[in-house]
């Protein structure tokens, strides 16, 4: 997963540079705002994805292969229906998006509509790939999952290189080619899973159970509520920004989202690997191990995010100057605040896996959905009162990182038996002091050196040196040190054998 991350992160950052320079800030902003519309209305895909993966991993933990065949077939039928529904809903929604909601220059409306149509097909193929992703995740087959991810990144690089040299409408071609990629990826995963795993049998007449469909749909419904509110807010923030400040600010937001997404690959990879373990232990009835794994996930999620994000936040102006030829207005501030929000969310976000593993997520989804949607209204009020664009992130940080974080802790305690004292000891205090000390030490070169490559290197080395010393001497317990030592020995032996 981390080998894949290293390759895909480099490619993705380079692709963004190529695409931003080829399209320009305005067209890049249009692609982000139109693509955001697809993402917002693709919430059903995300909801069913979490439901399918939860059920597949749960019964993998119980060792029930026959039940997994039912889950795979029920999931396949559901996702086919969802894909068709999304196509219809998105086509209807497109009328409203292009007649009063989106603020797009008149001469670029046709291009935006072509992109919208292409991305609808892209979304449908992405939805249809969910059952296969769930199977790979349940079997913890991260090698093949990583290979597919690298192939996807290489395809995106190929698309970027094509549009750089294309003489026609680059935005239209970019949208169409990007829509073809999910179809290719879905085909690759389908062929592999049917050859590799016995539960991947498409026979809905034989392996169909109404009770299971009802259970999965109910779980997905509550996941849908929570994810929908989050996606509505994420896309709504872009619309509010677009309404008050225009498409160029959407380009700045797109850069911030791109950077945070790439830097979060480290934590997301770990959570991708840990998620089936947590759900499997829940399926096996071992709640103690489930919580212990979730707390360790939270701590290391913070560490992985801080390790890369804090140096980047400190040196954001210089890094963006190297990466992008033309930095969109407000991009530096947006990047820093976006990274701060994501970093704070890591304190509690991995605990959601444990809450979902136990199955009863009704109350949790209702309360977190309310917390998800509030920043949208706060941001609108701030902009109406004349506050600057970065207040978008101020409201986001308060509601998502602080208020929603408190809700996650409350439900992890009431539903899973989480101990607050254990959370503080194992996650909150180590994470907080690690981040604060990395910031203080990392800022030292800023006060004494001019902006440049030397300062960038020093900031990184000091931050990472502080991180390593804190973990080695203070925050890692004996069992965690033992695991890390075993990991390094395994890597060393692998290289010696090769």
Automatic annotation (TrEMBL):
Sequence intervals crossing the membrane: 30-49, 70-98, 110-130, 142-165, 171-189, 300-320, 364-385, 391-412, 427-447, 453-476
Tell me how this protein sits in the membrane: Multi-pass membrane protein
In terms of InterPro entries, this protein maps to: Poly_Biosynth_Transport (IPR050833)
Predominant localisation class: membrane
Q: Quote the protein name from its UniProt record.
A: Na+-driven multidrug efflux pump
* Keywords noted in UniProt: Cell membrane, Membrane, Transmembrane, Transmembrane helix
Q: Does the keyword Transmembrane helix apply?
A: yes
**Protein's cellular compartments:** Cell membrane
Task: Give Gene Ontology CC terms.
Answer: plasma membrane
